[in-house]
Automatic annotation (TrEMBL):
Membrane-protein topology: Lipid-anchor; GPI-anchor
Similarity comment: Belongs to the SPS2 family.
Predominant location category: membrane
Signal peptide segment: 1-20
PANTHER family linked to this entry: SPORULATION-SPECIFIC PROTEIN 2-RELATED, SPORULATION-SPECIFIC PROTEIN-RELATED
Location of region: Disordered: 372-398
Name of the featured protein: DEBR0S8_02014g1_1
BP GO annotations: ascospore wall assembly
Top-rank taxon, per record: Eukaryota
Subcellular location: Cell membrane
Biased composition (Basic and acidic residues): 388-398
GO cellular component, one term: cell surface
Gene: ECM33
Length: 433
């Protein structure tokens, strides 16, 4: 079976629309029915939902769980002033909310194991979209495009594409464990909390070309990564087990906490040409094809330790002035010159901690202890992991998310026109033929 994918941009539509919400509250008069004014609705049957589906505005939160029908229809509900949570309803196959325009709180879809399609053609505004454990969900219709959203969390779905969330600012963007998801792109400019991408399809391409500022970035298991505009990481940046050969962050100036590059087996080149400051540690570990650590030409200070491990044959830090922690080099390359590294590269910059270096066939490293004034206080030996052990280390498990046994995708895969949409500008349409 062949899949053909079309990306359709609705840019004019989305860009011309400002974020202003409909201020003329048209629903105020029609909605004087007392049943529409409750802080919380607990719904577990189609009968329950019918009772309120003629409300245009629901004043509270709707919590739907253990629902008894294949189709869940939200009727004429246009606005939900609280959250909409649909969870643990194994019978639900389709969700339709033809009139729904806004959800003031969170929009949660969670543990809906039979859900294959969901349609929210008029939805434009949500605070947090949190979709988790939707193992066969492959079609989402957000035809109008979401123009106002703070956070997006998508885990354990079968979505195959995910077009531009073209809002400028997001709080959290977390997309993980979507096994068929091959492309994530967005024109977001700022992520004020976390950006987490992990364990999606093997060939995942990630493009956030306009992202300039992020608090925490964790990028794992990607094939291609475009973060070319990134200037500031306020806290930590981690690149783990990716398959790209180049990591290019030419505009990145500072990282507030730790920078980790771990187990990126194909990585050969890195570009951090503007990076001046790393507030925490700098860890470059087991990137087997990365031979030379010479891509920090502007780096002046590291607030924690520097720790390098791998088949590293050379290193150079032209501007490095201070490392407020240890400096550890465990190289498996016999071309690596420990004496040069210790004497020329790090001796004068390490304050407190130790300097450790091992290379080539040596099982051991030489360790020099340094006090806070930069004076040597003693020596000892350590273990050269690069040579003696091949165990991965320091690799975080991505997260807590229930790693749902990936349900077999079965026949549903070919069934659907996949309209994975566009949280703002684009819709990715996948048509099976
Ligand atoms: C989900 O629903 C099933 C059956 O309706 C119930 O036994 C189970 O406890 C529910 N789980 C949660 C987390 O609510
Ligand atoms: C290190 O390895 C690279 C790539 O194989 C090579 O171009 C470079 O000359 C080597 N440098 C040293 C000092 O051996």
């Amino acid at each position: 079976m062949k899949f053909v994918r079309y990306f359709i941009a609705f840019s004019t539509l989305c860009l011309s629309t400002t974020l202003s919400q409909d201020s003329s509250d048209k629903s105020s008069e029609e909605n004087i029915m007392p049943k529409c004014f409750k802080p919380q609705y607990e719904i577990s049957s189609s009968g329950d939902i019918k009772k309120i589906s003629d409300c245009q505005t629901i004043s509270g939160s709707i919590n739907i769980h253990g629902y008894d029908n294949e189709l869940l229809e939200l009727g004429s509900i246009r606005q939900i002033k609280g959250d909409l949570k649909i969870s643990n309803a194994s019978q639900v196959m389709r969700i339709e909310a033809p009139e729904l325009e806004s959800i003031d709180g969170s929009f949660t879809l969670s543990t809906l194991t039979s859900l294959t399609s969901a349609s929210f053609p008029k939805l434009e505004s949500v605070d947090t979209l949190e979709w988790k454990v939707l193992p066969i969900l492959s079609s989402v219709g957000l035809n109008k495009g979401i123009k106002k959203i703070n956070s997006i969390i998508m885990s354990d779905t079968s979505l195959t594409g995910f077009g531009g969330f073209n809002v400028d600012t997001l709080k959290t963007l977390r997309i993980d464990n979507n096994r068929f998801l091959e492309r994530i792109e967005s024109s977001v400019k700022e992520i004020t909390d976390e950006l987490i991408i992990a364990a999606n399809a093997r060939n995942l391409e990630v493009a956030f070309p306009e992202l300039g500022w992020v608090k925490v970035a964790m990028i794992k298991d990607t094939k291609n990564l475009d973060l070319g505009g990134l200037q500031v990481v306020q806290s930590s940046a981690e690149f783990i087990e990716n398959k790209f050969d180049t990591l290019s962050l030419p505009k990145l100036k500072s990282i507030g906490s730790t920078l980790s590059m771990i187990n990126n087996k194909k990585l050969e080149n890195a570009d951090f040409s503007s990076l001046v400051e790393v507030g925490g540690g700098l860890m470059i570990i087991k990137n087997n094809n990365l031979k030379e650590i010479n891509f920090f030409p502007a780096l002046k200070s590291v607030g924690g330790a520097i720790e390098f491990e791998g088949d590293i044959n050379d290193s150079s830090f032209k501007r490095l002035k201070i490392v407020k922690g240890s400096a550890i080099m465990k190289s498996s390359s016999s071309s690596f010159d420990c004496q040069k590294w210790i004497d020329k590269e790090v001796s004068d910059v390490v304050r407190g901690g130790k300097i450790e270096c091992g290379s080539g066939n040596s099982e051991f490293t030489e360790v020099i202890h340094i006090d806070e004034d930069g004076e040597r206080t003693g020596t000892s030996t350590g273990r050269n992991n690069a040579k003696t052990s091949d165990k991965g280390r320091g690799v975080h498990n991505v997260h807590d998310s229930t790693s749902v046994a990936t349900h077999s995708f079965g026949d549903t895969r070919g069934l659907l026109s996949i309209f994975v949409a566009c949280l703002t500008i684009m819709a990715a349409v996948e048509i099976s033929s």
